[in-house]
Amino acid sequence: MSPRSFVSSALAIFWSLLTTVVVTAFCLMLVVMAIQVISRYTLGLAVPWTDEVSRYLFLAEIFLGSVLALRYQEHIRVTIVTDRLPPKIAHLVAALADLIGIVVLIMIMGGAWNMMERTAGVFASTFQMSFSYVYLVQFIAALLMVILLTSQCQRHLRGKTATPPAKPWSD
C-alpha cells in the first residue's frame, strides 16, 4: 500500500468515525431526553442526570457536526457579492474569508484551552465528569476546522474551486 493510499484510507476511516460519533451523540441525546420526559410526566419522577447528559451530548453534536458541515460545505453562506465577481477576485475574497475564519477559530481554541485549564477540577453536579471535556470537544472541533480551512484557503489561492467530497448519506 502506498503512503498516499494509506493516508487516504486513514482519512476515510476518520471521517466515517466522526460522522458515527455525531450521529450517535444525536441518537443518545434523543434517548436521554425521552427518558427525561417519560420519567417526569408519566412517572412523576425527575431523573437529575438526564438534563446534564443531554446538554453535553448536544454540545458534542454541535461542535463536531460543525466540522462535518465545513467539510461538506454545508454552512450557510451569503454569496450575492462573490457570485458577481470575476473568478480570480472571487477566489481571493474566498481565501480572505478562510483566513478570517482561521483567525476566529484560533481565538476560540485559545479560549477553549483556557477554560479546560480553569475547569479541570470542576465536575458535573449529577455525575463525575469534568467540565474540561466540554471545552476539549470545542478545542478539537476548532482545530479540525482550522485544518480544513487551511486546505480550502490554499485551493482558493491556487485559483481552484473548493468542491466538497461526496456525502456518505447522499445518493
TrEMBL record:
Membrane protein topology class: Multi-pass membrane protein
Domain Tripartite ATP-independent periplasmic transporters DctQ component residue range list: 29-157
Keywords annotated in UniProt: Cell inner membrane, Cell membrane, Membrane, Transmembrane, Transmembrane helix, Transport
Keyword Cell membrane: yes
Coiled-coil stretches: none
Keyword check for Transmembrane: yes
InterPro entries in the record: DctQ, TRAP_DctQ
TM ranges: 12-35, 55-72, 92-113, 133-150
Subunit organization: The complex comprises the extracytoplasmic solute receptor protein and the two transmembrane proteins.
Family: Belongs to the TRAP transporter small permease family.
Job description of the protein: Part of the tripartite ATP-independent periplasmic (TRAP) transport system.
Matching PANTHER family: 2,3-DIKETO-L-GULONATE TRAP TRANSPORTER SMALL PERMEASE PROTEIN YIAM
Protein name stated in the entry: TRAP transporter small permease protein
